Amino acid sequence: MFGQLVVSGLAVGACYALIAIAMVIIYKTSEVLNFAQGEMAMISTFIAFTLLETHQVPFPYALALTFLFAILLAVFFELVFLRQAKDPTVLGLIIITLGFEMVLMGFVGWKWGPDQRALPFPVSNIEAYNFYGLIISKINFWTLIVSLVLMFILFLFFRYTKLGIAMRATQQNQLAARVMGIRTKWIFSFTWALSSMVGAVAGMLIAALGVLDPPMMMDPLLKGFASGVLGGMTSLPGAALGGALLGVIENLFGGYVSLSFKSVVAFAIIVLMLCIKPSGLLAKHYVKKV
User: Fold this and answer.
1) Using an 8 Å Cβ cutoff, are 230 and 274 in contact?
2) What distance in Å separates the CA atoms of residue 237 and residue 25, rounded to the nearest whole number?
3) Average pLDDT over residues 16-36
4) What are phi and psi of 94, to 5 degrees?
5) CA 231/CA 237 separation, integer angstroms
6) Quick check: pTM over 0.90?
7) pLDDT at position 86 over 70
8) Cα-based distances in Å from 33 to 53, 55, 159
9) In 10 A of CB 28, how many CB atoms?
10) 20 to 30 A Cα–Cα from 116, which one of 8, 110, 176, 184?
């Protein structure tokens, strides 16, 4: 039982990690917590569902079109709402993301309705693999593999590509980045687009693990935020580690203690980390001196 709980917890935790990474990508660049991240992923998943179920588009093409939609949605939001905000403060920008979240939730409820649906996915959520007596469902196994591959690609991107280095430079000092010729406004748009694509992957994996409906991302968004706080909101590896730990901890708590209080674990972790180590497990705590 312990092994099963750990494996399934890692699969769910991988989804939390992707959401946390998507939020961290934006936070590292602009210090804005994007609370519309979940609903942006949710509407992208509904687009994928419509392409697959209604229009019978092959999965690879539906995936590409979903990513395109996620990119356009994020760039539209960044250009039209965030960039046009007058004298923006961090709190004001966060409130804008909350408003956008409500708009997306209302639009999806109006367009697709409240019914629960099953996302057509190329991997079965019924069949399982047997690894020396450890039974792992195919959807859990491939969720973990896809998440790990995506995290590795992101690590290589930020570490070794010129664009990734430009994003890191913009995060560290926007003025110095502009002086060095980096187009910081373009970097902001790309940051939102990349974050939205990562969120779309998380949304589709979560829908494949469970069901597709308008509120599907409310709980994962909070868990993703908790994962970011646990690992560090300025650390991509920390966000990945936080998601894995949270998924395993809450699954073990639900298996051995109580399913009724399983969701409480995430909020308890947020409170404990903010009290003990506010910067998170892997992030560094900076003190600004005046």
Assistant:
1) no
2) 11
3) 90
4) -65, -40
5) 8
6) yes
7) no
8) 33, 35, 23
9) 21
10) 8
